[in-house]
Hints:
- The complex is a heterodimer of chains A (296) and B (391).
- In chain A, 73% of the residues lie in helices and 4% in strands.
- Chain B has 391 residues and is α/β, with parallel strands linked by helices.
- Classes of the chains: A mainly alpha (296), B alpha/beta (391).
- Chains A and B meet through helix 1 and helix 10 of A and strand 7, helix 7, helix 8 and helix 9 of B.
Amino acid sequence: MDTLLHQFFQQLINGISLGSIYALIALGYTMIYGIIKLINFAHGDIYMLGAYFGFFATTQLGLSFIPAIILSMACAALVGIIIERIAYKPMRNAPRIAILITAIGVSFFLEYGMILLVSPQPRTFPAVFTPTVYNFGPLVANSQQIVILVSAIILMAVLTYIVNKTKAGKAMRAVSFDADAARLMGINIDRVISMTFALGSALAAAGGVLVGVYYNSIDPLMGMMPGLKAFVAAVLGGIGIIPGAMIGGIILGVVEAMVSGFISSTFRDAAAFGILILILLYKPAGLLGKNVREKV
Amino acid sequence: MKSWKKLASAALAAMVFASVVSGCGGDKKEAASGDTIKVGASFELTGNVANYGKAILSGFKMAVDEVNAKGGINGKKITVVESDNKSEPSEAGNAVTKLVTQDKVVAVVGPATSGCVAASAPITAGNKIPHIAPSATAPGITVDNDGKVKPFMFRACFIDPFQGQVMAEFANKTLQVKNVAILFDSSNDYSKGLADVFQKTLESKGGTIVAKEAFLSKDLDFKAALTKIKASNPDAIYVPGYYEEVSKIIKQAREIGLTVPMMGSDGWESPKLAEIAGKEALQNCYYVSAFSAQDQDPSVQNFIKAYKEKYQKDPDIFAMQGYNAGLILADAMKRAGTTDGTALAKAIAETKDLPVASGKITFDANHNPIMGALILSLENGVPTFKEKITL
Lengths: 296, 391
């Protein structure tokens, strides 16, 4: 019993650190969906680009962890804006399925463009700080897990502040609520959308750098699976709702760790996508979502 | 190691359309003569895995030169006819067809990768020409789908399941561990096969598998599975797989406080393993390989010395496999006393205790060589010869 309980808490630690990464990526998904109702399938690849920006910032420029993560977030924000301008803006009035397909195209472009540029070989992320192992009784956590969790919490706090307390955030909420009315009130919608892509991409990049530091290895296709998982997390929490993405990410991470720990690791992905199916069947608006009637 | 061969050939298949294929250049044509025996060497001399093909060919030619210097085969000299398959399975068929039909070689050696060998095997079989694949590890190379041995197909390297047996032997005899956990890649036949063979062999020696967990290629996080393994208190963990995942598994295992020995397969072989896992994490880790320059066996050291003299560089495992293939072929030719394909194939199959660079080779009923395998440990991240195991 004791070992079971101990295993449970250890898996909880593992799950939360994994889940906070999902949450960071899911935030970008959810924000972009909230603003332009687009499921940005290229988001997982922005996370991959972020990891590479962080990699080059530490290896080529010799930056330490915090400057590297900030530089990577800035570069990814810029890439996010450029992608939106080039790929999505011309499609703003196109049917939603067309823009969704464009997003898949952008995703492939980023993945295979990076394979061309940096080769498909995985790269070793340099050790930016030496991991220290902390023992809490029988439980083990290392400094990297703590850094991931703390960084995720700080970034989420900053995001919540921006969205709820600043003028730009107010504009974002207004556009999300009713874009046409917001435009009539004199809000520059294009600028708000760019800002949303910048914020979402920066968070994904932070996730990418954290993963690079944590697992020591990055490759051009690393964004595929986490991208899908983060999508599940965003839907689980209620797509378009910012706290929903955080909660969804953490829940997903913990469920995965528990399933691998107590059932079998081969069922892990099945559990993650099973959650997606269940949520879509029984609570399509997500855990925090309210059922809203579509106006016809 | 093998996964990326497969990957490389898959990538190449895609690139075939993009590249302009120039005719089959670079082949030496020599007039037929009564005093020479022509042997075909079809290898990856250009393209993605040219490194493998060139290394094997260098070893193979060295063996041929040695045999010729000692008087050749019953008075006749061996000449090698080279043919490049550009690291593409589609080209491999053409290259071997040319060797067999135009150059009329009596035997074919090569190519390096299982994919290219599989593409060229039907041609040699159809023409009843003995064919030795120096480094193709896929079990299906020498036996067909019904488990019947292909009469003209041989290989000069150990096959995947053999490694599992070797590691179980090492776990039992040297590490003396009883309770072992297995963590394998359920999306990869190589890893799955090794896990099964290891389990069977260890259990037959009185060991117990206390946990068997699976992961998928490209996974990043193994802590959940490792935490579960840790709870089963294993004396050691067997992780057959490729360095990409294995390096992360070892790193994360050490992070959660699993300090028991970790054992693996030749897919571990890569400098990336130490880069990703870190040197400290690799203490107490062992894997199977076929070649180590630190192996003090005189046959290995003689081979290394001779190779260095001839080519001014260190041989690798591929050079050794090419060299072994050359010796196997020459020995069989001497015993057969003829260049008739069927008789020669029979002689190769009867190879017994033939001294080669890696010790002695005997062929089993499935045309796979029975030979020693090496266990390497990773001292400070550097592969270090630990011991040689012969089953």
